[in-house]
Amino acid sequence: MSDPRPPSTTPSSSAAAQTPLTTTVLDPRGDLFIHVSGTDSSGSNEPARFKVCSRTVARASKVFDTMLFGSFVEAKKLQDTSEWAVYLPDDAASAMKPVFEIMHSNFSGLVPIEAKDTERAPIRHMYDLVVAADKYKCVALLRPFADGWVQLLLDVKVNEERDLLRMAWIYYQLGYKHGYTRTITQLVVGFPPWIDDTITPQDLAPSALPPGLSETLIHYRSHMIRDLIDPVERVVLRFLSTTPGLKGHCMSSLSEPKDRQDCEHRILGKLICDLNKHNMWPIPELEKLPCSPEALARITTPVFSGREGANTSCNNQSHMDHSACALRRRLTSGWSRKLKLSQSRPPTYTDNYEYKIHPDEDGHISRQSVLTGLNLVTFPAANRKRKSAIVFLS
Question: Where do Low complexity bias regions lie (predicted)?
Answer without folding.
Answer: 10-21
